[in-house]
Design a protein that fits this description.
66 residues; mainly beta; 1 helix; 5 strands
Length: 66
């Protein structure tokens, strides 16, 4: 099934959760916020939220600077 994550189209298996997606991309520990179709998904729900065909996902991390 096709999704878009951070502007890049990707094929993922059906019934993939946000947590599994981030683990497969090796960015779970670096990701601070996730939006699916412009709706923020709380971190507590990443292991429950199933990604759907065509979803647009933004995985964000925060970078300090000055």
């Amino acid at each position: 099934m096709k999704i878009t994550i951070n502007g890049i189209e990707k094929d993922i298996p059906k019934n993939t959760t946000i947590k599994k997606l981030l683990e497969s991309l090796q960015v779970l520990d670096k990701t601070m916020a996730v939006a699916v179709n412009m709706k923020i998904i709380k971190k507590d729900n990443w292991d429950k939220h199933i990604i759907n065909e065509g979803d647009k996902i933004e995985a964000l991390n925060f970078v300090g600077g000055g």
